[in-house]
Amino acid sequence: MDIRFFDAHCHLQLDAYKEDREAIVEQMRARGIGAIVVGVDYQTSFAAVELAREHKHLYASIGLHPNHTDEVFDQARYRALVQDPNVVAVGECGLDFFRPEKLDESVKAAQKELFRAQMALAAEADKPLIIHARPSRGTFDAYDDLIALVREAQAAHGAAVRGDVHFFVGAPEQARELAALGFTISFTAVITFARDYDAAIRGVPLASILAETDAPYVAPASRRSARNDPLAVEEVAAKIADIRGEDPEEVRTALVANTRLLFSLPA
Ligand SMILES: [Zn+2]
Prior knowledge:
TIM Barrel, eight-stranded parallel β-sheet, 9 helices, 42% helix
């Protein structure tokens, strides 16, 4: 099929879609929308791989989210799963300083340890990372720590440490720093109703940007509060072009090309 849009981050495997998953996947196919289905723990990672096996326009990412502290990271189990040809990335993994009820140094240290382990796994498998980074309220703290950890991992493993920083909510200079480290940043439909990220979107090269939905979360302005789905990536791509003041068709094709390049997807 001819891919016209790529949703670089969605969770189609979740129960939110248990009634109509196949209908949405078929609508995506009809409209030329491919997607990376992202796991947040072992069970959802496994389900992502199964979904990607069934559909040519879907790919899987496997990893353990920093908020899923009930699961102990079993490197061997993830290492076995990462070999599957439908797995194109490791994640979502990273740092979340927003969600923990009590954020102290031991919580941060545990998150960093878990993230380091997944960066090492990604480098070993030579697959990119899908990174979640959410700062504590009113700050950009998680991005400073993320940048430091990425530098440390690149010093140890080289350029094999690469990936996408999803749902970017950092500062424009942090976006530029991540782009300089070879990472892309991706934006959700939040940009259709919040203007906070316009400077970051304009401040990096188009080659450093991907479009995503993080569906079922954050529906676009056209249908706020409803469950989101990957079809909304069309609106995200159009809004990125609008914010940058660039030709929508050129931006659309560039966003698809950027996604293919990062995740080594066949043309
Ligand atoms: Zn997500």
